[in-house]
Protein: Bifunctional protein FolD
Organism: Terriglobus aquaticus
Amino acid sequence: MSARVLDGVAIAAEIKEEVGREVRSLAEAGAVPGLTVVLVGSDPASEIYVRSKVKSSAELGIASNLITLGVDTSQAELLGILQQLNEDDAVDGILVQLPLPRHIDTRAILEAVDPLKDVDGFHPVNVGRLTIGQESLVPCTPAGVMQVLQRSGIAVRGRDCVMVGRSDIVGKPMSTLLLNAGATVAVCHKETRDLREYTRRAEILVVATGVPGLITPDMVAEGAVLIDVGINRLDRREDVERLFPGNAAKLAAFDKRGSVLVGDFAPQSYLRSSAYTPVPGGVGALTIAMLMHNTVKAARMRRSLPTDVLEFA
Ligand SMILES: Nc1nc(=O)c2c([nH]1)NC[C@@H]1CN(c3ccc(C(=O)N[C@@H](CCC(=O)O)C(=O)O)cc3)C=[N+]21
Ligand SMILES: [Mg+2]
């Protein structure tokens, strides 16, 4: 069987186009959506992600603002800034880039964001609303996976789905979304005794562990749909050679840049699938598009405008 590549970049572009239209219609009504991203410290990966969030916002006409704070910013200072942003009527979406420095209590910060401005969907109110199937701001990466499935014509209702990874950011909300969509869902994690026994049953297998090459072909059912949420940067050539034996394209990419991005699936496992999301260019590409979508959705919710006019909620 030859597997279909699920093109995250193309799907993200389609969503961004829709969001751009929604931004223009809000702007015409005098309500330009605003997104503020808060970055504490100077982690190089975080800086890249944050810049690309700000750039995408600008492209779509969202008024974005980046607040960068020193690594030694206190929790109290950060809470003060969030309070100002909560009260600022020009701010529809607030995103505090993670990870935060160790001296800051991440949960306390996430809970200080107004749930109506919580475009990451990490506030307990949004987590709870998602769990009971009420309208909410949904975490961007799992929401992006649902869009990939839907826009690729892959049915979820009644299917056997396995989620590997139980993080609050991906695994838990992803399994909730699949469950709410009518799937049978098993959630596996580091303590799972026989991972393969579960993954081999999956018609849709979603993996978000951060372990490059964790899922090998023997763990994949023939014809399964594979969704790779892992983003791992390899910066040793021997690791690339081990995980991608004979893959000239990956090695060439490594030799050009000194590192490559790889997912949690060993590439040979794609050969058994009916469809899969590549890394890069799969699910990761959706994360920012969904952030843009959530910003528009937040802008509408806060003004009591209907959200069912959006392409999806
Ligand atoms: N509060 C918070 N919210 C987040 O949503 C958040 C965060 N903190 N911290 C870091 C992670 C990571 N993240 C990504 C954004 C874009 C790509 C992305 O565009 N990936 C592309 C390109 C990757 C590349 O080439 O570097 C791809 O996978 O194809 C990936 C990952 C958002 N995060
Ligand atoms: Mg996870």
